[in-house]
Amino acid sequence: MLGWKESVVLSGLGGIRLIAKLDTGARTSALHAVDILYIRHRSAIWVEFDLPDIDQSKRHRFRLPLAEHRSVKSSIGTSQIRPMVVLELCMAGQRWSTEVTLTDRSDMELPMLIGRSALKGRFVVDPARTRLAGDAGETQTVQAAKKSTKQRPRKQ
């Protein structure tokens, strides 16, 4: 069981750790990204983007293959076409790959939203609580992320 706010490590992005909102009402996961560019690399399209630190003092630049464009309906009812990538997440001692859209979430409290398609079959979410994974879950998450980062670093 996890709370609606938990620590997650983005092992596919060099092991960056952040706090994410676990939202069973949202189907698709989303990551805060700015300065999004599309780049042709060999025969594929890649997405290059910045992921700012929480305090906006530093930005981390990444490049990932574009999986597709996805139409996403926001919480206020407007639709957006967003780039979607596949990211490896580590949370509460588990590691898995999931689809994540890239969008400017600067007006949101947390830089990442993890939707129900990424949570399904893995976790139950208690919307009245936060950080239920605790220190033990966080330690396992970091260890899982380190193993993954050593296997396939993708930071550009």
TrEMBL record:
Q: Which Pfam families match?
A: Zn_protease
InterPro entries reported in the protein's UniProt record: Asp_endopeptidase, Peptidase_aspartic_dom_sf
Regions of biased composition (Basic residues) lie at: 147-156
Region named Disordered: 134-156
Q: Which residues form the Retropepsin-like aspartic endopeptidase domain?
A: 1-133
Query: What's the domain of life for this entry?
Result: Bacteria
The protein's name in its UniProt record: Uncharacterized conserved protein
